[in-house]
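@here heads up, posting the sequence + SMILES for the zinc ion run so it's all in one place. Ping me if the SMILES looks off, I pulled it from an old spreadsheet.
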Amino acid sequence: MTTKEEAIATLRYLVANEKHCRTQKDIEMLTICIDSLDKQIPKKPLDVHLDDWTCPNCFSECNADEHRGDDYCPICGQAIDWSAEDE
Ligand SMILES: [Zn+2]
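bot reply: prediction finished. Complex structure tokens:
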């Protein structure tokens, strides 16, 4: 089974290779695919404070009262990995 990381690597290869990716539209389409796949791979939140945390993708500061422990950034949809907080 192809993992999301492998799919992203393949799409990046296609974007970089003119044989597969000839037009600006091809590049835009593949870039959208890469971005949306990349957001599904959980990343750790940045700068976690008591009252806010920062999204590792869009760098928005999110209110911790409303969004602490959310699976996804409320602004851009980046999957958030909170696992380190339990360590
Ligand atoms: Zn975000």
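MO: The pocket of zinc ion is lined by residues 55, 57-58, 60, 73, 75-76, 78 (CB under 6 Å).
MO: One more: The radius of gyration is 16 Å.
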